[in-house]
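Narrative of activities, Objective 1.

The group set out to show that a structural description can be obtained from nothing but a protein's sequence at a throughput compatible with the screening campaign. Below is one input-output pair from the validation batch, recorded exactly as produced.
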Amino acid sequence: MNEVEKLLSEWNKLNTDEEKSAFDVKMKSLIDSKSKEEMDAFAEDFFRGAEKACKEAEELIEFVTIRLQLEPIIPYISLSTIAKEYFGKSRNWLYQRINGNLVNGKPAKFSDEEKKTLKMALEDITHKLQGVSIALN
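Output recorded for this entry:
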């Protein structure tokens, strides 16, 4: 864990305004004590950390978006059938991705190709339902 990660971990644990103020003083003192070379390295670590946080946030937004879009239809469709017929996988595999469950220590997520397959599966089911609806008229 580099210095920036340690500071971020410390900052995440702050609860009160007093703790935050004390942390601000600590940060100012830390920055003032660094040479130009040390500040350059610190800034580079900070930038890499910010990029990592942005990537994680984008992944979380993507997961939440998929989950929210599927939420209203999950009670009406068979995820087991979708997993088996469109992905060749188990229902648990599909649920892991929909719910972001940890698999091998990392949250399960859809690959780009799997997202395309899911979209195609939902469109196929839509067409089947529309066909039945039209036939009932």
